[in-house]
Each structure stands twice: as structure tokens, then as C-alpha cells.
Amino acid sequence: MRPELLTRIDSLLPAGGDTPELARYAQMLRDYPQRGGKGIRSELLLGTARAYGVQPESPEWQRALWLAAALELFQNWVLIHDDIEDDSEERRGRPALHRLHGVPLAINAGDALHVYMWMAVRRSGVDRALDEFMQMVLKTAEGQHLDLAWVESREWNLTEADYLRMVRLKTAYYTVIYPLRLGALAAGREPAPQFEAAGLALGTAFQIRDDVLNLIGDPAKYGKEIGGDLLEGKRTLIVLHWLAQTTPEQRKEFLERMNRARTEKDAGQIEELLAWLRQSGSVRYAQDFADREARTGLRALEEALADAPERDATQALLGTMKVLATRDA
Amino acid sequence: MRPELLTRIDSLLPAGGDTPELARYAQMLRDYPQRGGKGIRSELLLGTARAYGVQPESPEWQRALWLAAALELFQNWVLIHDDIEDDSEERRGRPALHRLHGVPLAINAGDALHVYMWMAVRRSGVDRALDEFMQMVLKTAEGQHLDLAWVESREWNLTEADYLRMVRLKTAYYTVIYPLRLGALAAGREPAPQFEAAGLALGTAFQIRDDVLNLIGDPAKYGKEIGGDLLEGKRTLIVLHWLAQTTPEQRKEFLERMNRARTEKDAGQIEELLAWLRQSGSVRYAQDFADREARTGLRALEEALADAPERDATQALLGTMKVLATRDA
């Protein structure tokens, strides 16, 4: 993320604390934001504001920067809770927060960071952004519920439509649709209604691409553990497609291994599942699906931005979005 | 809580969900609010608004009701996360949410309810209430951090001042100070600065009284498990006072038993600790401490409300506060 966003986040968070315990609290709040992160969502927001004519150093740019900082705070508190919910081991190359401080303190730190997100929204002075953030967080929580509930209830009897619905709610709104909307609002523009269709397609492409990278990505470039989705029992388009066309024996074997708790999973057996998936045509199927969604989404976004006055900035935004939807890390 | 608050909360939350999983999500969000709860904080807020002249059926009363509903939503999302953090078994006579649906889904439901709290604040139309809620939640989270961190790091080397600081942050702000402030704001009044001192004393009395009831309360009237604080390893004024004056042998024995994880605790051994505490003078000491705080706080509050125009409503508010600080259930 941009240094000026981290500066803004820093200025909101408690500086130290006059006891060792309150110093630890302050440090826990700063931990994830300081680990960095690509800052893709905040870049989309700022890029949209630029496309709509916001000039650096203008008051509108300050608004956009506060909203961008709020998006990063959103990402960070969600990741703290997400890492607990998935019992992830690592985040951005270091142990997850709950693995450093235990689950209770990490839940509480996530709740506090959630409040600082609202503080950043408030600082932007864009009154409507409060309602936008409410809708954004609620969409994400609804998608997150589906994702987690399928793991919890061992539900594998799912269609492509089920998967797409979950991914749109969980990823597309906060990764694409709301960054576009908030960037427009910072510029004093009414967000284009077409952002929604464009963002649903682009967000879906982004997530499917992430699912693909989780299986076949370059460990040196991809920030998370390769195969981690299998360990966490995530339902992905790849797995659902593969399950629908594999042999009954492999299907049975797969479900049996996947339905074990993370700690009960055998590393060798998971490696074998990885190999089955990689050798199947399902990775290709998912990649083609993502490519189609990316093309559809980019075309829709180009149209939605047809009246954006800053054409160079608009082209840059479309370029960023393309990289995002077809990323290899 | 008052039926009109539950009606307001109901109107914000998702009604059903068009799949069984989304129906479960909607049901999880409604679960804690529907279990009832005394609604003491919302009563204080509404009582303060009345004392400052707000008439039922007036627009100011609608504002106050939305803020009261937001306070109840705060209490409910915090309790969902609290129950996970303490690994509580029950809440209001039923299994805790995470014991019904697992930790991941319950964390997520708490996060969503947190957003609905902001929605209720927003509905009140009292713009400053947003900042008040931010400060309130952050104070509470800071106190919660101390409480949880002492358990996590097995810290028993604590003074009375440490305990009082934690309790003020964790309980006094959201139980007394902010309900008073928000009630005044709903009435269009600047909150009296003396609310803080009054509320710190009253909130402390409330919490110490809760600690006492947790040891010697009437199981039929007290909503939580008698002795539950010991199972959760809570630091209380009673325990800290007792540790400071007991024999080295009993101290050693106590700390050894308390430092075990909840699931490793032996019920019979905890019963014995309960007996030691009950037989000591420490329960009396804590009760006297709470009584002094209650008297100080009530006097301060009476002065702070000297200029409140509705004298009957003011007397009723002081009466509610007195019951709260000296409650026996």
C-alpha cells in the first residue's frame, strides 16, 4: 500500500500505551497494516478518483486518500478475523496474528481495527461513504458466511451457481465494485450503475485466478501457501468441476480426505489430491472461465467509464484492473 | 429490552435468505437480540433523554430509540465475540452462539451485527453519535484487551489500581458514561462533563457487584453460571484482595489451579477455591468498595443532573441507576 495511506492509518491508531499490556495492544493493531500488502483495492479507488478528474493536492484527493486508507483498514481487520476463521498459519510471510497472541486477543484487535476503519471513513468527510461501507461489509460477511458454512457443514453438493454467488458476495463487492463507487463519490460523482455488473465479472475473475494460483502458482511470488485452500477445505470452481467429472472412487477418496479437520489432514494425501487436480482439465476449465469473466468485465468497465474526463487516468485504471483480473501473483 | 427496540433491530436485519444457508445466517444475527436481556444500558439512555425533557412521540424520542437500539446491538455483537474469547458455555440460558454454530461462523455473525449497530446509529440522525460510539467501542476494546491479556499471559501480579483501570475501560464507559452522554445528545443537549466521573464510579460499582454475585449470587436470579469467573480465570477485586492476604500455600495452590486451561480445570478443586473465597473477608471488602463507589457516583450524578428540567424523570433515572449499582441479580 502507498506510504501516505499507512501514514494516515498510523495517525489514527494508538501510539504506544503507558503499560506493557497497552503497548502490546497498540502493537497488535499496527501489526497487519505494517506488514504491507499490495494495496490493490485502494489503488482502484484512487485510480477511479483520478479518472473522474480529481487532482493530487486537491481537497477531493484528501477525501479519496482517507477512503483508500479506510479500505485498507477494512482489509486488515477482515484478514485478522479470516485467519482465525480459517485457522491460517501465515499472513504476508509472518505468523497469523492469532498464532502470535492467541485467538481471544486477536478477535478483540480485529474488532478495534474495525472501529478505526469507520474513523477513517468519517475523516474523509464523504458522508455517503458511511452507507457504502455498511453495504460493502455486509455483502462480504454474507459471502464469508457461505464459504465458512460449507466447510462447517461439510457441504460438497454444490453447483457452479452456488460457487459464483458466494464469490461475488465475498470478493467482488469489496475488491472491485465498492472501490469504483467510492472513487467516484470522492470525486463528487454519482457512481455508475454499470460498476456493479463490471465488478461482479472482474471480481469473479480475480477470485478464480486466485484459486488457480493457489494450486499452480509460483511459491516465490504467490504470498500464500500453495495448496492452502485444500488444507482449509475451500470450495473452488476447480474442485467443483473436478468432482462433477471424476471417477466415483476418486470422488469418495477426495471427500473423505477433505472432510477431516485441518490438523487431521495427512500432508502426503493432500499432495496426492493436488496432483489429481493439477493433472485434470479442471484447472484449465477454471482459467478459461476466469479469462471470459475478465474480458466481459473489462468491456463493461470501459463503457461505464466512457464519460470519465481524464482519459489517461482512465486508461491507467483499466490497465490496473486488467493486471488484477489476470494476475500471476 | 423494550419491545420497540427489538422491533427496530428486527427492521434492520435480513428477513430470511433464499437458501437454507442464508436463512441460517439471518437466524444467527437475530439469535442473541431475541434472547432478551435486561436492556439496562438502553434504559439509562432513554431515562436520560426523558430527564432532559424529551417527550414520547416527539422526533427526539425517535432519535433516542434508535440510539438505544444501537446500544443493544453493541451489547449483542460484543457478547457473541466475548463468549468466544472466554469460551463461555451459555448465554441467557441457551448455549453460546459459537457452541451452536462453531467459532468461524460466530465470529462472522458478530462482525455483521457490528455493522448493523452503525446502521442503527445512522438511523438516529444524531450525527455526533457516530463519534461517540467510536470512542465507546474503543474504550471497551482496550479494557477487554487487558482482561483477556492477563488470562493469556497468566498475570496475577496485579494491583487494585490495575483492576480498576481495566474495569473502568471495559465496563464503565459503555454501561454508564456513554448511555448518559447519548441520552443528552438525543435531547439536543451537550453532555455534562461530570458524567465521566459519575459513570466511572457507578460502572465500577456495577462490575464489582457483578463479580460478587458471580461468587455468591442466587443461581435462580443471576443469569450466568455461579463461579464462572473462576472457570474463565477472571481477575476480580475479590481474588486480588484475597491473594494479597492469604497464606503462601493457599496462594500457590490457587494460582496453580487457575493457570490451567478451562477444560483442564477440576470441578471439585474449583469448588474448593470458591469456598476459600467465600469464607474470606474479601467478598465483604469488595462489596464495601462497590457500595462506596455507588454512593460517590450517585452523588456526582445527582449534581450533574441538577439542571435537567424534568425532575420526576430525573428522580426515576437516579433510581434506575441506584438499582443498577446495587443490584442483586
UniProtKB/TrEMBL annotation, chains A, B:
The EC designation for this entry is 2.5.1.-
Keyword flag Hydrolase = no
Instruction: State one molecular function term (GO).
Output: transferase activity
User: Could you tell me which Pfam families the record lists for this protein?
Assistant: polyprenyl_synt (PF00348)
Instruction: Give the highest taxon in the source lineage.
Output: Bacteria
Q: Does the keyword tRNA processing apply?
A: no
Keywords of this entry: Magnesium, Metal-binding, Transferase
What cofactors does the UniProt entry give for this protein?
Mg(2+)
Classification via InterPro entries: Isoprenoid_synthase_dom_sf, Polyprenyl_synt, Polyprenyl_synt_CS
Family named by the database record: Belongs to the FPP/GGPP synthase family.
Provide the protein name: Polyprenyl synthetase family protein
Recorded source organism is Deinococcus antarcticus
Q: What is the lineage of its organism?
A: Bacteria, Thermotogati, Deinococcota, Deinococci, Deinococcales
